[in-house]
Amino acid sequence: MKKIITLLILTTAVLTIGCSTINYAEAEDLSLKIGLMPAVDSAPIFLAEEKGYFAELGLDVDMQIYRNANNRQTALQSGALDGAITDLIAFINNVNNGFGIKITTSTDGSFPFLVKKDFKEKDKIEIGMMKVSVSNFLSEKFLADKYELKKIYIPAIPARLEMIAAGQLDMAIIPEPMASMGELRGLKKRFYENKDEFMPEAMIFTETALKNKEKEIELFHRAYNKAVEDIKKDDAWARKVLIARLELNPKIEGMIEMPEYHYSRVPSQEYMSEIIDWVEKVQNEIIDVKYEDMVERKFNK
Question: CA-CA-CA-CA torsion for 257, 262, 265, 268, nearest 10 degrees?
Fold first, then answer.
C-alpha cells in the first residue's frame, strides 16, 4: 500500500513539473518595439506581420511609424524602442557619441528625386533635404557632378513634398512610396544608378535589446527573411500593405519603384568607410568608430 501511495505521489510530482514547464513556455513574453519610417524599407516588416510570420514564431512586434527622423532618434535614445530602421549617417553619429546600437541588417530603400512641374535644366538648383542625413548624402552622390546644389534643409518628409509640389524647390529627394504620391500630383520622378551594393539605411537594435532580447531579434530576422522571399516571388502584396499601413492613395500601387530586396546582411566595411568619410567631411570632425563595433552578424541569413 505504501509503495502505491509513493508511486502516486511521484507521478503527481512529475505531472506537476511537466505542466509547469508547458505553462511557462506558453506564458513566455517575446516582444519587440521598433520604429519604422514611411518608406519601402519597411515593406518586409509590414508583410511579415500581415502574413502572420511573427505570430507563428510567438513574437509580438509593436511597430511605430515616424515621419520625422528626429522623433525616431529621440524615441530610440530614450529607450522607448528596442530597434529601428535608420539612416547610416544618423547611426554613425549616434555610435560616435557613445550610444550603444548595432546594425543587424542592411535594408533596401528607393530614393527618387522629385522635380517641380515647370523645371528647366540649369547649372544651379535648389534642392530639399535633411541636413545630416541620407537625403544629403545621396543628393551629393548622384547630383554633385551635374549641378551646383543649393541645399534647403527640411527635416520632415511631408513638408519637403509640399514645398516641391508648390514649386518652391527645383528638386527634392523623397523616399518611396511618398515619392509616388508626389508623382500623382504631377511631379516627375528621376532615378540615378546606385553603383554600390548597399543603400545607406539599416535595421539597428540597442545593445540592451541585443543583450536581453537576443531570441526575439533572431525570430524577427527569421520572419523578415521569410517576407523577403515572398516579395522576391511577387511584390504585389507588399505594395498593397505599404499603401494600407502608410494610409496612401491606392492609385499609386503600380507607380511605386520597389527596390531589390535582400535577405538579412550587414553592410560591408568598405561601404561603412565611405559613409564615415562623408560624415567627417560634412561635419568637419573625426569619427572614431571601428567596423566590428557597428555590426552584429549573428542574425544574417
Answer: -60
Which residues have C-beta within 8 Å of that of residue 28, sequence separation ≥ 6? Answer: 58
Report residue 149 as a C-alpha cell.
546644389
DSSP 250: G
Rounded to two decimals, what is the model's pTM?
0.87
pLDDT tens digit sequence for 186-224: 999 999 988 899 999 999 999 999 999 999 999 999 999
Alpha-carbon span 148 to 144, nearest angstrom: 7
Distance CA 203, CA 274 (A): 19
Residue 163, number of CB atoms within 10 A of its CB: 17
Which set of grid coordinates corresponds to residue 85?
530602421
How far apart (Å, rounded) are the C-alpha atoms in residues 77 and 96?
14
For range 74-86, the mean pLDDT: 94
Minimum mean pLDDT among 65-69, 81-85, 225-229, 283-287: which range? 65-69
C-alpha atoms less than 13 angstroms from C-alpha of 117 in its C-beta half-sphere: 10
Greatest Cα pair distance in the chain: 101
Rounded Cα gap, residues 239 and 255, in angstroms: 10
How far is the C-alpha of 294 from the C-alpha of 269, rounded, in Å?
10
Where b means 16+ CB within 10 Å and e means fewer, 213-236 reads beebbebbbbbbbbbbebbeeebe
Question: Using CA atoms, how far apart are residues 84 and 146, in angstroms rounded to an integer?
Answer: 34
pLDDT tens-place string over residues 5-23 = 444 444 444 444 444 433 3
What is the grid cell recorded at 215?
Answer: 531570441
